Amino acid sequence: PHWRAARQDLFFADSLRARDEEDTVVAQQIETWVTFSLAGEVFALPVEPIREVLRVSGITRVPHAPHPIRGVSNLRGRVIPVIDLRQRIELPVAEVDRNSRILVVSSRGRLLGLLVDSVHQVIHLDFLRVQPPPQDVVTAESGYILGVYQVGEQLILLLDADRVLILHEGGTA
Question: Where would you tag: which of 13, 94, 96, 167 has the fewest CB atoms within 10 A of its CB?
């Protein structure tokens, strides 16, 4: 009958509309990052290598330690090197204050600390919306900047964890 053909067309039209809606959903690649401050700017690292965030309870300086090692710290009986992330990315050194934190990260089977000015939050960002850093501001020495992510008016500089943790050619922190 005629009504049955019309009914099939209706179902077909509904399935087309559903398929079109699926196709128009913008592709997303959601990743989880930790945001923190250095010299008044907001940076982020992927959450995967970060094991914990610590208050700075003490960093012991080690004579002749390579730049940018700030010293070592005690993590529940285990001594870990602490990298001053400001020094690592060529920002002016600052004194440790009550907001300073150490991001404990795992790199190539080792734990180490990254000293930052403060830690903000864990964010979920759409990696497909990350913009490359402008070519005019990136040099070989600043290759640790993976991209720029915008949240409202705030720009977040995304750091390449692997590059940040390499202190010299052929080695890690």
Answer: 13
How many domains are contained in the chain? 1
Q: Report d(CA 77, CA 145) in Å as an integer.
A: 33
Euclidean distance between the first and final Cα of the chain, in Å?
Answer: 77
CA-nearest of 102, 97, 98, 122 to 114 is 102
Residue 141, pLDDT score: 65
Residue with tokens 């087309």: 16
8 inside domain: no
CA distances from 35 to 41, 45, 155 (A): 10, 7, 11
Whether 10 maps to a domain, the answer reads: no
pTM (global) more than 0.90 = no
Percent of the chain with pLDDT over 90: 64
Q: Please report, for the domain that includes residue 129, its CATH number.
A: 2.40.50.180
- Better-predicted residue by pLDDT, 113 or 1: 113
Phi-psi region of 136 (alpha: psi -120 to 50; beta: other; left: phi over 0): alpha
Specify the DSSP class assigned to residue 94. -
**Would you say residue 9 lies in a domain?**
no
